[in-house]
Amino acid sequence: MEPRINLFATATGTKLAKRFAGLNTVLHQSTLPKTVIELVSLRASQLNGCGFCLDMHVKEAIAAGEDPLRLHLVAGWRETTVFTEAEQAALAFAEEGTENVSVSDETWANVGKHFDDEEIAALVCLIGLINAANRMAVITHQKGGSYEVGAMAGLES
């Protein structure tokens, strides 16, 4: 399937993309670990089948120094030994926040063991934003494979 529209070629799409990029900057300025941001973004994008976002988050994570092995294992994180307890809590939170209307009290409590309120706020917003970005890219048939590291950072101005 070919992309249905290039949102970045429209005035409205460009304005919204700049705001999304600005929100991403706020997330990266938070105390939430950058690794967690990319792992959560990657897992939600896997669940939503968003090739564009998978491409972007894998490349951005590798550029930031993430071990490619860990990225390959995100889909099966429960069956691995490469993620910290905090990362596992964030991945469970991302999965429930992506697949369900809410998250269980158990998952919420587990996230609270590893992250403070500021980081939890960032996680909640991150999960909402990545799911919105995934849906826009999937609806418009955006393809993965050609993303260049840092491309979204250029939208922030």
Automatic annotation (TrEMBL):
What GO molecular-function term can you cite, just one? peroxiredoxin activity
Q: Tell me where in this chain the Carboxymuconolactone decarboxylase-like domain is found.
A: 16-96
Q: Which Pfam families match?
A: CMD (PF02627)
| Xref: InterPro entries | AhpD-like, AhpD_core, CMD-like
Q: Does the keyword Oxidoreductase apply?
A: yes
**Which UniProt keywords are given for this protein, alphabetically ordered?**
Oxidoreductase, Peroxidase
* Source domain of life: Bacteria
PANTHER family, per database record:
4-CARBOXYMUCONOLACTONE DECARBOXYLASE FAMILY PROTEIN (AFU_ORTHOLOGUE AFUA_6G11590) (PTHR34846), BLL7811 PROTEIN (PTHR34846:SF7)
Q: Per its record, how is this protein called by name?
A: Alkylhydroperoxidase
Species the sequence originates in: Lentzea aerocolonigenes
